Amino acid sequence: MAKIFISLEGPDGAGKSTVAAQLQKKLQEQSTQPVLLTREPGGSKISEQIRQVILDVANQEMDARTEALLYAASRRQHAVEVVAPALAKEQIVLSDRYLDSSIAYQGAGREIGIAAVRQLNLFAVEEILPSLTLYLDLPPALGLKRIQEQRSQAPDRLEQEQLAFHERVYQAYNQLVAEEPQRFVRIDATQELPQVVAACWQAIAQRFFTATSND
User: Fold this and answer.
1) Would you say 25 is a known binding-site residue?
2) What domains does the chain contain, in order, with CATH numbers?
3) Any binding-site annotation on 14?
4) How far apart are CA 118 and CA 189, in angstroms?
5) Is 13 annotated as a binding residue?
6) At what angle do helices 64-78 and 45-55 cross, to 10 degrees?
């Protein structure tokens, strides 16, 4: 059976975590394979500890390259400890963010170079790569507004960055989507949640469950 590894990407406030949780339920209903929902940074004990360091608002002095290296280290641990074993057991893996986040946020947002950050993260994950990436497309200003209005917890260290940072991230995501149309599917995340989930499911069904794509 083909390995199914799906990642969700997009700017802050696009609703990735909420959408991922609903897609997990839908996938479990439609497939006999177990479905693993995981996230980055995090997903394993060590990776979650690194996540706390990266996103802590007290760590404002963190160097951009330190940040990139920490993300790659967290991703490596997550990939080898969680993602690869799940795929080996023929589980469906659904990840809330993966290596494209670092390419966009550190490569473009932090302006340390898309090519360099891509190479670093390909080194980290080796051949453990998603076969489908759902890109939740949302203008960054709207995403930040959603965070301010809808979240109960305070924004993390990256969410607190200025709009110009998030605009660079957004442009990088659009570049990635254009470069790999066979892997990325763009989803309009300005829609209401049910429509976003439906569009994501249609993309998944067409790719992996053709017989049930109209269900």
Assistant:
1) no
2) 5-212 (3.40.50.300)
3) yes
4) 25
5) yes
6) 160
